[in-house]
Amino acid sequence: MKTILVTGATSGIGKATAELLASQGNRIIICGRRSAVLEEEQKRLSAFTEVFFFTLRFDVRNLEEVEQAFGTLPEEWRTIDVLINNAGNAHGLDPLSAGKTEDWDSMIDGNVKGLLYVSKMVIPGMKERNSGHIVNISSVAARQTYANGVVYCATKKAVDVISDGMRLELTEFGIRVTNIQPGAVETDFSLVRFKGDQERAATVYAGYEALKAEDIADSIAYCVNAPKHVCISDMTIYPSAQAEPRTIYRK
């Protein structure tokens, strides 16, 4: 049994991952921004498994909140074996010349700085124990920049680079680092990107079968459950209809 911390665990990939890893007998720390949603998710998860859960409420973009939240962890929850850096966001689909700086800040703060803030809280303990596993959720957007999504692509490229750097710095301490690059996954991702415009968000997944959050959760579980001498360094996952980040074949 491992103690696993999942950021962004109240929806999408994070939620599916927390559920799957809990069903496999692990202890899960579910993290999110809203207390009511966290409590509801904890109750729901507890209904189908005997595994214990702990909730941490913080916004990964706020260093003070991150530090305060980790300071509330009881002693028996502080040995984190696996960190899954899933929290992140995409906002807008505008060219740079028309981009909103608040959207840029949100993506940079959430996708890059937030990942760093949380990792900084967990890595020292892993180094002391000479053991651990960090899974970072990047995107195929890191592989190929596309027009009108430049800042988002840049943040996910940063996740790739940070993952490489973590592996260079942490392998000697017995810490594995895995970088996951999902393609098109049908979650609330596009709904957030388009500021709640359901009609526009639905067009992203029209005419083909996109990946599901559970597909990415399966991949994360495979990496986490690999033998200790095995490190899945990078994994790219497309739906069958997607050939590369910008090319999807629709019916």
UniProtKB/TrEMBL annotation:
Keyword list, A-Z: Oxidoreductase
Question: Which parts of the chain are coiled coil?
Answer: none
Pfam families assigned: adh_short
Give the family, as the similarity comment puts it: Belongs to the short-chain dehydrogenases/reductases (SDR) family.
> What PANTHER family does UniProt report for this protein, alphabetically?
ALCOHOL DEHYDROGENASE
Q: What is this protein called?
A: NADP-dependent 3-hydroxy acid dehydrogenase YdfG
